[in-house]
Amino acid sequence: MIKYLSRVGILSALGASVLVTTINVAPAHAEMFIINAQDPSDTIDVYNSSNLPRPDEGEHTNEQNSIACDTAGNCVMIGMRSGGLELSAGSFDANGVYTTGPAGFGPQPNDNIQGACMPFKLQQGAGGKVIATRAAADGVAPPRWLSNNDGQNYRNYHHTNMQTLDATAGNLRALVSWNYQENGGNSERYIQVVDQNCQTVTLGGNLPTLNTSENSRRIMAKNNDDCSGRQSGGGSDIFVHPDGKIDYVSYELCNGNGRDDGWYNHITLTPSGNGYTVVKDGDESINSQEERGRGKCSLVDLEANDGIPDHAVCTYTKGNNQPQRQGVWVALVNLESDDEVWNEELADDKRFYNGQLKTDAMRIKHTMLENGDAFVTFNYHWGYNQQNNGGQNRKGGFAVQEVAAILELTTNPNVGFNVKKMADVTGPMTAAAIDGAHLVQTDCTFGQGADTMEGACFLSGSFNDSTRGAELFNVAYDAAANDFVWLGSESIQAPLADQLYSNLAGNNPNNQGRNYADCIETPNPFMNNAGPTQGIAKLNLCGLAGKATTGYNPGGQYKPDFVLEIFTTMTAEPQGGANPPAPPSGEVLPETDPKDNKNPGGQPGNATPVNSGCSSTTGFGFALLLLTLGLGATRRRQAN
């Protein structure tokens, strides 16, 4: 049994008991490594504090990186990159200052921003701790460019995301997906497949190619809509069949002046020689009222229970407005026919704040547990008069309540899903200074050896600058007790610039975030070796972009590095016994329209609002801001 110190508290809003813990979650090892530092010669429109907000396309920076690894620790990181690639690994001196490698940096990318791929390798260092290396002596190949595009507004390789297709030791294959907008056209989504040396493999089939990007294939495009918007950590999932065939499903936000829908997308990749043949199987609109929902689709096995997925479960927010006002939804798509089987609303309670302004359920995310349940989170968002206020250089509101739920999926179209557990998590998350919008929600396994629990880790960045590390909030699900186990929060070393990134770097209007991050859970190559990760089956890796050396410098450069954070989620012995901090004081939101018939675990009701806007100076600072809803945008926004 996992050891933790707990107390049972009653959240009156839920009408059910919730297990609240005060465990001290201490990673066995948490360390930051720079995979590719900023190029000091990349001085295009270097940020200066006297010029805020930044104009559209006022800066070109490194951001939106994603990672993949095989079982031996051979890994690659991809991202959109400005400036030359760092050709050899740098090092930290005795004062902790990062210095570039002797080979320096390669040439600048064409048209300011291109897709970069950077190999690295996990190893054990002193004391058995897990480290990352880019040294050629360790068999790591140099970084390389994957594209040479020349698009509109420098949108040459954005919203990058990766998934591991083949994790066999020494045979890494990772699918890279990304957006590109040609001059005068719409943003479209493409894929490439890279190996551990960042070499692309051949992709066959009849999907369109992009000659300026190696071995690429287009997987999503719509007339007069920009595709495809993503949530941090991506919105897709893959499954590798025993015969090597691969199913890839994704939720594609296509926003603009066309249909403006959210799409279920299904492609298959079949091994062919050293590459794959790509076929598009499904392209189904599952959300006719899409604006900024940034949904996700995952593969699930519901029928034969044979371990082979037969459906895709998709979660998304509905509404043709900002903020979206038609609730959070769950849909199920049959993988064989690629037809939607059912969709249901999970939550759309309208609540009043300050006696007049309603809140709306939105920004839903999910991860899948091994038993097939979906671990879902969403929030209730309050908008300033429910109008766009971007012209005032402010976001249109903030989150006032965070909710977590466990959904048991069913193929019965009259039921859809059962809510096994739903809880108000506003207090613990705000106390941990966790933002509810730009969270990266990723699978996490807590414990050691046979004593483990599944759950989720939530990564939140800095809303003021990148001098502080990102913050992790850890939640396990105790299936036997049908309870969430709050494992507390912890800071990690790696920086993650968030809210002000668009002001500092341009491109997105006003205070809207754009620096997406990615975290994965990957097999630990050193599980059986002596050291702090012995007995830990999986490592957690986060790819982040932030200024890892000097942090935010108002008078100088704000070019972020590509950084890697390695951490584990093993639980430590409890230290002390303090109760969890209470939520902040404020007006209680009255509950309306309870859906007790849908929710045996209790519908979240009263919650304490977090009185923090985009320029908050409260004790919780940047807690629970909704950053990517595009309130300052015109109706036509680029899918970024």
What does this structure look like?
This protein has 640 residues and is mainly beta. It has two helices and 36 strands. Strands 14, 16, 17, 18, 19 and 20 form a six-stranded mixed β-sheet that branches. Strands 4, 5, 8, 9 and 10 form a five-stranded antiparallel β-sheet that branches. The protein has a five-stranded antiparallel β-sheet with strand order 25-26-27-28-29. β8 (114-124) and β9 (130-133) form a beta hairpin. The radius of gyration is 23 Å and the shape is globular. The protein starts with 5 loop residues before the first strand and ends in a 73-residue tail after the last strand. The model is unreliable at 1-24, 385-395 and 572-640 (pLDDT under 50).
